[in-house]
Automatic annotation (TrEMBL):
Protein name: AB hydrolase-1 domain-containing protein
Domain of life: Bacteria
InterPro entries named among the record's database cross-references: AB_hydrolase_1 (IPR000073), AB_hydrolase_fold (IPR029058), Carboxylesterase_BioH (IPR050228)
CDD domains per record: Esterase_713_like-3
Source organism: Salegentibacter agarivorans
Residue ranges of domain AB hydrolase-1 in the record: 99-319
Length: 372
């Protein structure tokens, strides 16, 4: 017996319309249009934290109110500075927990934006995954350049130094099979991401500002890079709104319980030391899931390549720290990317050619920890 189903044209049209409406709803709820355009529900910027400094004396709006560069009276006037500047975007149908991205040394929020070779960075990648994103310029850096303390900004010719330390290569030669684009324009853009401190680098000032950000926005996942890695642990000790940390190549300020701090680890050109805190404080780091990533070109043994050497000890210290946190009941996952098949990554895996794959690994971890 053959069963034949007949649908009238009018009924088919009505059903088709309902399907289109449903598909439109699904697409809109995902925050991405069929042509790939992101749908942003809300965006903006603001300052977080900071201080106000006042000069002695009284301000006279007549006597002191004229702009006179180099000979301006500061009597009785204030300066608002030492805050973080934050740019945020929330996609349509956003997930509950936002990702808060904090840059490393000499960098700004550009670390997480468009890659030097023009592809989408973590900002857009995770917006497409429906996460609200917050990008930080830490105090006295980038868009948060208003400092309450003076400094001298040098104009050092040091591009090749950072080329090596960031493990793109050595001198001016890229490493073989490196994941960073070898297009000269991409390298030019990368060098132009560097930005100076406009005041003395003060870790406590940075921690206070980022903690103020979490006070303002509530619970979220902190994503750090390099120099902000250690500052991230310290901020988590102060603020319980940090529900997890993902750290890309943390290089300093590893926090251990007092009495369990490892000996300083020497390397070619320096020494890496850890911090000790009371166990009552340290236990906070055992209460949240943490994942740490390191890229490629990091040797296990001493080398005469200074750009690789400091990351050798950073990875070694990260291994020690991971073991100690987990021994005290924590949940730290350490991921050297070459060990999971991702080879050629630099100190900036969020900018490398395989940054989508790197981001996907973080997304899977967030899902596994119930942070999505």
């Amino acid at each position: 017996m053959t069963l034949k189903t007949h649908i009238k044209p009018k009924t088919l049209s009505s059903a088709f319309k309902r399907i289109l409406v449903l598909l439109s709803f699904i697409i809109f709820s995902c925050g991405v249009k069929p042509n790939g355009e992101l749908v942003i529900a809300e965006q903006g910027s603001f300052a977080a934290g900071g201080t106000v400094k006042k000069s002695p004396g009284s301000f006279d709006p007549v006597e002191h109110g004229a702009f006179n560069p180099g000979n301006q009276s500061t009597a009785g006037q204030t300066i608002h500075g030492d805050h973080a500047t934050v740019f945020y975007q929330k996609p349509v149908n956003a997930r509950e927990l936002p990702l808060i991205f904090w840059h490393g040394f000499g960098q700004s929020m550009r670390t997480w934006q468009t890659t030097p070779d023009g592809r989408e960075g973590f900002q857009s990648i995770f917006l497409r995954k429906r996460f609200p994103v917050y990008l930080i310029d830490q105090p006295r850096r980038g868009l948060a350049g208003r400092s309450t303390e003076p400094t001298t900004i040098s104009a050092s010719t040091d591009d090749q130094l950072w080329f090596g330390i960031f493990r793109l290569g050595m001198g001016t030669e890229f490493y073989e099979d490196v994941q960073f684009s070898k297009d000269p324009e991409a390298l030019d853009q990368f060098f132009r991401q560097m930005t100076p401190d406009t005041g003395p680098l003060d870790i406590e000032v940075n921690i206070d500002a980022v903690s103020a950000l979490f006070d303002k926005i509530g619970p979220g996942v902190l994503v750090t890079h390099s120099h902000s890695g250690g500052q991230g642990w310290l901020t988590a000790l102060e603020n319980e709104n940090i529900k997890a940390i993902a750290s890309y190549e943390p290089g300093s300020n590893f926090v251990f319980p007092e009495g369990e701090v490892p000996e300083p680890m020497p390397y070619l050109g320096g020494e890496l030391s850890a911090r000790g805190v009371p166990m009552s404080e340290f236990e906070r780091l055992t209460e949240i899931p943490i994942i740490i990533y390191f890229g490629d070109y990091i040797p296990e043994e001493e080398t005469q390549n200074p750009g690789k050497e400091q990351w050798r000890v950073a990875l070694a210290m990260a291994r020690k720290w991971t073991d100690v946190v987990n021994e005290h009941g924590g949940d730290v996952t350490l991921v050297p990317l070459p060990e999971i098949g991702m080879k050629g990554n630099t100190h900036f895996p969020m900018s490398d050619l395989n940054n989508q794959e790197v981001a996907d690994h973080l997304f899977e971890w967030l899902q596994d920890k119930g942070l999505d």
